[in-house]
């Protein structure tokens, strides 16, 4: 028997009222954007850059006790900030109102093997438009993980608890290749010429990243080449695992709902808002966790207002939660360990053939 989702269905009139309240909340924050927000993002950019400069210079001294691990940590934190709080949020257009060419959503290129153009398509458009709609949102398991009984089972899923460890370590590569759907070319369903054309920008971008981190900077260190190479490898791994963990906590823990295409046909704005609420989950923690997560600790608020500067989400969260409660909508939130633990539990639960049929929660 499928478990009912804790949120109640909304009437068309309630959907319209919900949309009006959330639109008003968004408008009030937009009207308040200004120098405070500009100072915040510029400060984060400086911290990320200074951290990267320190990390790269300190790595040049080789395996010096205390200095080397501190350098790796600094470089890893820099990459996390650039990926999460800067790159992801800038590409959502959160700072376009500043008219700063360095923070322009359409031209920003991040420190990642995936291209920004590809991210804007797969994430900003596909994922945020079709959040948690089975068959339309490619982020549902990233085509390699079964996280709901509504997904067709195959024997490969038996290994998903193990191969997700590899996926976490190489997460930036999975994101870079996500839209390729390589299986179609392997099976001959699409021409290889098309595959090579789509791969070209990815190869160019990833080639630059590999050259920078694993050739240029290591060679610059001379005899300390190995210390720099290993340091860069660990820093990239830190960023990959952290990003993987935060994103999975935001969409796959207990209490998050999966939708069918039929449920979202001719969707109203109010229904879209409700789907964002029910298809996302928050992580409770410290301000440091919020910053390092790019404020995707507030994934619910991010999906409701993706173009609002993310550092505003903690201020908006109490109002969003109060609105959820009044409209009978579940507000999925919890500490990191609990949220990620429930994700891991799903890896094992759905690795085997259906133990529960087509649940409404995932």
From TrEMBL:
- Domain Fatty acid desaturase, first and last residues per copy: 66-333
* Protein's name according to its UniProt entry: Fatty acid desaturase
What are the protein's UniProt keywords?
Membrane, Transmembrane, Transmembrane helix
Q: Which GO terms describe its molecular function?
A: oxidoreductase activity, acting on paired donors, with oxidation of a pair of donors resulting in the reduction of molecular oxygen to two molecules of water
Q: Name one GO biological process term.
A: lipid metabolic process
Concerning InterPro entries, the annotation shows: FA_desaturase_dom (IPR005804), Fatty_acid_desaturase (IPR012171)
Q: Which domain of life is it from?
A: Bacteria
Membrane-spanning ranges? 53-75, 214-235
Any one Gene Ontology cellular component term annotated for this protein: membrane
Give the matching Pfam families. Answer: FA_desaturase
